[in-house]
């Protein structure tokens, strides 16, 4: 447990003169506990006020509304009509495209998450220190992430993975002929995995910032103990970076399950060819905003939330064993 | 704010601190005691440059295409065509009375700057509470933070639109900006929580002994040490907001209030004439502010602890 | 803790209050229109919102027309909203949910059903009877494409597009094949492809693979005199679609078309299409794509020429149908008289016609069309596009009444089902069954 100064809580909102002599006198443990908790509570809710307002006004309402919609039929215009579990029934029994989208999404997650984490961590380590022109390299490596889901990406991806794209031109040089990679249902999804990994910059920046927070002294101490580079990585870098590994892992899984923009842009919103890039949220979007089955879309969303919540819960439980926080003693 | 000088730092988990003058550092460049470091550096840089060329080819191609006449944009896989022209930049920048990119850049910049300010303030406050304070319902509320991350945003789009419409906010930037000041983007709360938790709490204790309250600890200890986290958040907010299309598409319908991403989308239409040359030219230009911001923010990320930490 | 709860309670109340507002929003009341307003009578003043789809060049023309209208009616402000075709309708759906559609909303006959089924639009007939909107110069057959299932007019058709067979004349000449004669049928079409393939250089197929293009199939159905839809269900037989897709599979098997993978990656805009880059001989494209396609061909620098022909005919007559777009007034519009005046101005004012210059399909007003054809300034390609439109209208094209969900359900399922065939995932009869099940189920929702 951390030590708390009971008087501190009283001054948290005004940054005024912090401690009075009286605060310091009040140090007896038994009297402290209750007041400290109360003061911490007050302080915490003061800090949380903006978030609470935003939560209640902009987030919870629409979230609950969408939960309600999951049990209705709603065409965005007439009032929602209660249909019980019909949406879920349809999802699990009579909608083959739903399962296609689940399959596509799982494949995508399985490929893109490990690749993205490995590439971003590797490059973060490489670009952390020990080389000239690092700032320049970092900026250049980050550039692909800047373009994001821009409409230009679809055209660029065809230039690379299209029938007449540069990949096929390169393959032709060594005598291999191949059809379009984006247009072939067997490979279209993988081009989107590559697109995702290509924009690894955000995860890399998070790792880089984390690496910056590791005190050099820890490395020096480890070096003194005679640890080699690999040992230093395993016993200093990884543990110190673990909160951010957790963050990046969780976020890249959530993002991968919710992947939308890249597939939307590359397949021109269809999830094609032949549904091979029909991501879960792409299908959800099509159901909700094109076919106007918003109730069904909401049901799909909440099934995804349930799945992700299970995964997240498991991740947080396991994190006790492998994530190391600086506030732990 | 230079009160962080008051926090004495102790223990093995010391963060930052003055560089020990005698710390041995092997020079990678400079004196080159033997030939092998130079060789190694050469190899390293060559690998970097080759990887970069491969990675940046799409962007280089786009830049090259933006310099070709509009009807020759797709004629080559190479980077340069035979005729180079800046026509696409001129045509794209002000293709007509309503399509004026100086306007779009200004709009995007306004929204982006406000979003960054809002996100940093609101999310840092929230994250501090979750990372450093004990309070009732903490676990439940944090689960709620994570929970909002898990719901695909598409399903809340419609209720949110109805809400903003009732508030009379449609066709203003309020729906895009106000939520940012209320920490509705759980991603950044979570990010900052993870960063703040990684900071040794001995620093807080030290500050507390010196008489700092929570507000003081937040401003004088945690915030200065979180510069990398803040820089990261600012950078991501910049990119997300700059590239956001769906939000502006729904809420900023009149061309006067369009953002850059809407301007870019308006170059293409399946039912009429598209302008790929202008698209690539303006896409190239639209990367400039984000890249500039990255270069600027990188300093914060890299030098964060060393310069603004505890001296 | 006690004070924590105290702190959150008012917030919780506020949140719940807002949630109620959100829920109530769905039942938000619409403006009460007076009888006069419903007839488009009243002051032409104040502001209206006007939305359309298109890219930069069309936005400029549209803005110019709106400016003319503002100049004609001082004190009126037209606030403009544009987006590209795909995003336009998604946004419109969200705006519809908030009862916040623009007073003048551009729609397409193919999407009209989505909005009439939800009773989102005002009928225009009373405004026509009162004289607020003049339709006397619009051919009856064209006007009828704006009607709903109940026979009332919900969209004033302002532009009529059609699909055409785009053929690279230069490549055809080099291959030594004559263009299909007027009135050619599907057999002639396939023969044309076969003959052309013999003379074409390697790597240039005779056609883009278009078995999954709904508009092409519609021409096939019309030529046979069959019906596309029967209310909310498919109106043609399974056998007919099997026959059609088997024809395409034959075309594909003989190597007359490009590969399904190449086809799947083709960008939607005409400038970037294979026919525009001279990589295929022919394609089915909207008639107004002639200008952008020729533009890209010019950029290739080989001096190739593009021409457009009507789609193949059948025993029952021509296959071409008109794909009209037009303007509607939603029920949530609070300024109907001004909106009606805008519709009238758009459809009838000569300056409007000259300025817009049939950018989104041929102008439906015959007077305005004649002016454009007589205009020496109008580019030749545009004139050829308009002339072909005249030919198609003169042949009395049949009208398809598109059910709600046509674009989202029918078109998406049709394209996908044929892709499954072309990629070898399903046989033609299997794909037809899948398609029928999906389309009938989706359209019935």
TrEMBL record, chain A:
Primary location: membrane
Pfam family membership, one: BPD_transp_1
Ranges annotated as biased composition (Basic and acidic residues): 21-31
Residue intervals passing through the bilayer: 45-71, 108-127, 139-157, 188-211, 241-266, 294-317
GO biological processes: transmembrane transport
Signal peptide bounds: none
Membrane topology according to the record: Multi-pass membrane protein
UniProt KW keywords: Cell membrane, Membrane, Transmembrane, Transmembrane helix, Transport
The keyword Flavoprotein appears for this protein: no
Record localization: Cell membrane
Cellular component terms per the entry's GO annotation: plasma membrane
Transport found in the keyword field: yes
Domain of life of the native organism: Bacteria
Annotated ABC transmembrane type-1 domain residues: 102-315
Region described as Disordered: spans on this chain: 1-35
SUPFAM superfamilies: MalF N-terminal region-like, MetI-like
Similarity section: Belongs to the binding-protein-dependent transport system permease family.
Name this protein carries in UniProt: Sugar ABC transporter permease
UniProtKB/TrEMBL annotation, chain B:
Domain ABC transmembrane type-1: 105-297
Protein family (similarity comment): Belongs to the binding-protein-dependent transport system permease family.
One GO CC term, this protein: plasma membrane
Protein name listed in UniProt: Carbohydrate ABC transporter permease
Places the protein is found: Cell membrane
InterPro entries for this protein: MetI-like, MetI-like_sf
Keywords from the UniProt entry: Cell membrane, Membrane, Transmembrane, Transmembrane helix, Transport
Keyword Cell membrane: yes
UniProtKB/TrEMBL annotation, chain C:
Segments of this protein annotated with the region Disordered: 260-314
InterPro entries for the chain: Bact_solute-bd_prot1, SBP
Gene3D superfamilies referenced in this protein's UniProt entry, alphabetically: Periplasmic binding protein-like II
Name under which the protein is recorded: Carbohydrate ABC transporter substrate-binding protein
Organism of this sequence: Streptomyces triticirhizae
Organism lineage string: Bacteria, Bacillati, Actinomycetota, Actinomycetes, Kitasatosporales
């Amino acid at each position: 447990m951390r030590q708390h100064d009971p008087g501190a809580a009283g001054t948290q909102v005004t940054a005024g003169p912090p401690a009075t002599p009286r605060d310091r006198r009040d140090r007896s443990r038994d009297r402290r506990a209750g007041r400290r908790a109360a003061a911490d509570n007050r302080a915490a809710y003061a800090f949380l006020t903006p978030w609470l307002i935003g939560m209640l006004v902009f987030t919870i309402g629409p979230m609950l509304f969408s939960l309600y919609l999951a049990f209705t039929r709603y065409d965005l215009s007439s009032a929602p009509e209660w249909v019980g579990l019909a949406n879920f029934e349809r999802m699990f029994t009579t909608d083959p495209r739903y399962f296609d989208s689940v399959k596509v999404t799982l494949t995508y997650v399985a490929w893109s998450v490990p690749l993205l984490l490995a590439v971003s961590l590797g490059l973060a380590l490489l670009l952390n220190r020990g080389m000239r022109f690092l700032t320049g390299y970092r900026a250049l490596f980050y550039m692909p992430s800047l373009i994001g889901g821009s409409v230009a990406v679809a055209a660029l991806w065809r230039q690379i993975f299209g029938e007449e794209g540069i990949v096929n031109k390169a393959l032709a040089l060594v005598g291999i002929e191949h059809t379009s990679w984006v247009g072939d249902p067997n490979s279209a999804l993988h081009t989107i995995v590559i697109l995702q990994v290509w924009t690894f910059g955000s995860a890399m920046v998070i790792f880089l910032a984390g690496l910056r927070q590791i005190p050099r002294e820890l490395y020096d101490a480890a070096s003194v103990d005679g640890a080699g580079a690999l040992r230093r990585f395993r016993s200093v870098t990884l543990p110190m970076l673990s909160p951010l590994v957790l963050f990046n892992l969780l976020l890249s899984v959530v993002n991968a399950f919710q992947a939308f923009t890249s597939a939307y842009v590359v397949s021109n919103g269809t999830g094609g060819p032949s549904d091979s890039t029909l991501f879960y949220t792409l299908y959800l979007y099509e159901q909700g905003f094109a076919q106007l089955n918003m109730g069904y879309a909401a049901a799909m969303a909440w099934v995804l939330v349930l799945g992700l919540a299970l995964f997240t819960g498991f991740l947080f439980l396991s994190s006790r064993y492998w994530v190391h926080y600086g506030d732990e003693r | 704010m230079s009160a962080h000088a008051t926090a004495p730092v102790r223990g093995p988990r010391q963060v930052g601190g003055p560089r020990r003058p005698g710390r041995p550092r092997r020079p990678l460049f400079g004196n080159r005691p033997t030939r092998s470091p130079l060789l190694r550096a050469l190899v390293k840089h060559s690998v970097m440059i080759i990887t970069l060329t491969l990675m940046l080819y799409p962007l280089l191609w786009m830049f090259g295409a933006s310099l070709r006449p509009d009807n020759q944009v797709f004629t080559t896989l190479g980077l340069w065509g035979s005729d180079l022209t800046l026509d696409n930049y001129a045509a794209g920048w002000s293709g007509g009375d309503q399509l004026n990119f100086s306007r779009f850049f200004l709009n995007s910049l306004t929204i982006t700057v406000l979003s960054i300010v809002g996100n940093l303030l609101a999310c840092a406050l929230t994250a501090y509470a979750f990372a450093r304070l004990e309070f009732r319902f903490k676990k439940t509320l944090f689960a709620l933070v994570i929970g909002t991350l898990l719901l695909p945003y598409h399903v809340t789009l419609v209720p949110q639109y109805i809400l903003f419409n009732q508030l009379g906010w449609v066709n203003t930037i309020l729906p895009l900006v106000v939520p940012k000041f209320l920490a509705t983007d759980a991603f950044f709360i979570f990010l900052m929580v993870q960063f703040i938790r990684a900071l040794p709490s001995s620093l807080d204790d030290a500050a507390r002994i010196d008489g700092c309250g929570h507000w003081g600890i937040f401003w004088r200890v945690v915030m200065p040490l979180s510069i990398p986290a803040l820089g990261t958040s600012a950078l991501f907010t910049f990119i997300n907001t700059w590239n956001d299309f769906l939000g502006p598409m729904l809420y900023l319908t009149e061309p006067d209030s369009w953002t850059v991403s809407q301007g870019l989308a308006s170059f293409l239409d399946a039912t009429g004439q598209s302008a790929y040359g202008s698209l690539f030219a303006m896409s190239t230009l639209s990367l400039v502010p984000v890249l500039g911001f990255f270069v600027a923010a990188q300093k914060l990320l890299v030098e964060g602890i060393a310069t603004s930490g505890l001296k | 803790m006690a004070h924590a709860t105290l702190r959150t309670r008012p917030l919780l109340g506020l949140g719940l209050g807002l949630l109620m507002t959100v829920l109530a929003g769905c039942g938000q009341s619409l403006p009460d229109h007076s009888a006069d307003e419903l007839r488009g009578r009243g002051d032409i003043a104040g502001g209206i919102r006007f939305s359309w789809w298109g890219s930069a060049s069309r936005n400029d023309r549209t803005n110019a027309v709106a400016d003319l209208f503002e100049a004609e009616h001082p004190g009126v402000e037209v606030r403009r909203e544009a987006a590209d075709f795909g995003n336009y309708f998604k946004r419109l759906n969200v705006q519809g949910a908030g009862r916040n559609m623009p007073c003048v909303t551009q729609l397409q006959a193919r999407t009209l059903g989505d909005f009439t089924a939800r009773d989102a639009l005002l009928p225009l007939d009373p405004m026509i009877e009162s004289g607020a909107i003049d339709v006397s110069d619009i051919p009856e057959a064209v006007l009828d494409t704006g009607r709903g299932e109940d026979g009332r007019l919900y969209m004033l058709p302002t532009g009529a597009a059609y699909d055409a067979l785009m053929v690279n004349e230069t490549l055809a000449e080099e291959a030594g094949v004559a263009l299909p004669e007027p009135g050619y049928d599907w057999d002639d079409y396939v023969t044309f492809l076969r003959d052309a393939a013999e003379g074409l250089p390697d790597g240039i197929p005779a056609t883009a693979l278009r078995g999954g293009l709904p508009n092409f199939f519609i021409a096939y159905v019309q030529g046979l005199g069959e019906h596309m839809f029967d209310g909310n269900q498919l109106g043609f037989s399974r056998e007919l679609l099997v026959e059609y897709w088997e024809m395409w599979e034959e075309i594909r098997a003989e190597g007359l078309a490009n590969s399904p993978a190449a086809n799947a990656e083709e960008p939607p805009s005409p400038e970037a299409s294979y026919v525009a880059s001279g990589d295929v001989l022919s394609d089915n494209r909207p008639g107004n794509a002639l200008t952008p396609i020729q533009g890209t061909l010019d950029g290739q620098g080989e001096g190739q020429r593009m021409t457009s022909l009507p789609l193949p005919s059948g025993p029952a007559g021509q296959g071409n149908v008109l794909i009209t777009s037009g303007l509607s007034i939603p029920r949530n519009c609070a300024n109907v008289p001004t909106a009606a005046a805008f519709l009238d101005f758009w459809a009838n004012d000569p300056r409007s016609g000259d300025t817009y210059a049939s950018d989104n399909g041929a102008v439906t007003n015959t007077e305005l069309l004649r002016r454009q054809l007589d205009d020496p300034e109008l580019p030749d390609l545009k004139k050829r596009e308009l002339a072909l439109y005249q030919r198609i209208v003169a042949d009395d094209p049949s009208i398809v009444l598109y059910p709600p969900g046509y674009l989202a359900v029918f078109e998406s399922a049709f394209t996908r089902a044929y892709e499954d065939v072309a990629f070898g995932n399903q046989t033609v009869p299997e794909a037809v069954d899948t398609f029928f099940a999906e389309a009938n189920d989706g359209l019935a929702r």
